[in-house]
Structure formats: C-alpha cells, structure tokens
Specification:
Blueprint lengths: L1 E3 L9 H13 L6 H14 L4 H10 L5 H9 L13 H8 L5 E5 L5 H7 L8 E4 H4 L6 H11 L7 E4 L2 H10 L3 E5 L10 H4 L4 E3 L5 H8 L1
Parallel strand pairs: 1-2, 1-4, 2-3, 4-5, 5-6
C-alpha cells in the first residue's frame, strides 16, 4: 500500500506559504517578501521543526499566539485547480490496481473537496487527514492509526512525501519505506546526509511508479 502526502506532493505548496505570510502580517508582523522567503527557505533546508512555529517565532516573537495565526491562515489555505501538479493523475493512474492507495497529510478537512473537484478522491481508499483525526504529522500515532485502519503491515507500505521530518523519518520509524519528493517543502539543495535518510528520492511523481515497481 502506498500513502501520499498532499501539499508539495500533489499540490503546489506555495499556496500554503502565502496563506501563512498573509496571516502573519494580519497578526501584526512587519517584514518584506524577501525576508519571508529567506526564512521559509531556511526552514526547508533544515527539515527539523514545524514551519508554522518557526515562522511565527521569527516574525512575531516567541510568545506569539500560534493558534491565532493558524486560524487566520486557514481562511486563505485552499488549493485552486491550477495548484495541482500535472504529474499527479498520470502517476496515480499508473499505480492504481497494482497498489492500494491512501493519504497521510497535515491538511484542513476541506482539502477533500478540492481533491474531489480535481478527480483525485477516486484513487484513495484510506484517509489520514490531520483535521479529520485530531492527529498531525510527525506524531507516530497518526501513522499507527492509518496503518491500523488500512489493515496493512508497515513492511508492505510506502510513504511518499516532501519532508524528512514529517514524512520520511516517522514513516521509517513506523516500519514503512519512504520516497522523498524533492519539491514543495523539501530543500532546494538537499545534502548527501539528508538523501541517505530515505529509501528513494525523486524529483517528481513521474519517477514514482518505477521506484515502487523495483520494490514489488
């Protein structure tokens, strides 16, 4: 069984970044677009903590109300049809029937409506969406819950995601294989040590069917 992240893997994650940028400014932060992009790039390079927490601490200070900023950002965090990467449907069509498919993602519950609109929900049988479950990556309980729901052994699963800290590491801890997609919230230039943490890495989803086929 193969589980996919959503933001950065299936949809362009700049939508999320800009929603957070707007929410920080509405919360009183003052910064240039360049300063935000530099901090966001630093978070992507580090792959070590919540981007939301890091950005809020950087631009509003350590005592800022993270939940309040999240609530503001949620108003703007919605994927338009144009955010869907063109390689998503061809990838899913290539592997459906060969693998069961599921989702493990930190997303608002409304993301399913966007995926329904874009013809994606038909591919997935198990949904591990954070707002639906009250569990968020990298919490191992989310991975355990989804694997239990799917009724599948971790050794027979793979996680396809764009982050080491939220996708690759917790998946491997759970006993799953991992495919790191180098877009979205992945670093622009991952280090050799970072690349060594995953079972496979790809630049886009067009490469995923061959990777999965080499394991089956």
């Amino acid at each position: 069984m193969v589980f996919f992240d959503i933001g950065g893997v299936m949809y362009d994650d700049s939508v999320y970044a800009r929603s957070w940028q707007r929410a920080l400014r509405e919360s009183g932060a003052e910064f240039t677009d360049e300063a935000f992009d530099l901090e966001y790039a630093a978070a992507r390079a580090a792959q070590s903590e919540s981007f939301r927490r890091r950005l809020t601490r950087r631009f509003l200070g350590p005592d800022a109300d993270l939940a309040s900023v999240e609530a503001r950002a949620s108003r703007y965090w919605a994927y338009p049809p144009s955010a869907l990467y063109p390689d998503v449907v061809p990838c899913l069509e290539a592997i459906e029937g060969r693998f069961r498919l599921g989702v493990i993602a930190n997303q608002p519950s409304s993301v399913r409506a966007a995926m329904e609109r874009d013809g994606l929900t038909r591919f997935f049988e198990v949904w591990g969406v954070s707002d639906d479950l009250g569990l968020s990556k990298p919490d191992p309980k989310l991975f355990s819950h989804v694997l239990y729901t799917a009724g599948v052994s971790p050794a027979r699963t793979a996680m396809v995601g764009d982050r080491l800290d939220y996708d690759v590491r917790p998946a491997r801890t759970a006993g799953m294989r991992s495919v790191w997609v180098l877009r979205g919230e992945a670093p622009d230039d991952p280090t050799p040590a970072q690349l060594d943490e995953t079972d496979a890495w790809v630049n886009d989803l067009a490469e995923v069917p061959d990777v999965l086929g080499s394991w089956s």
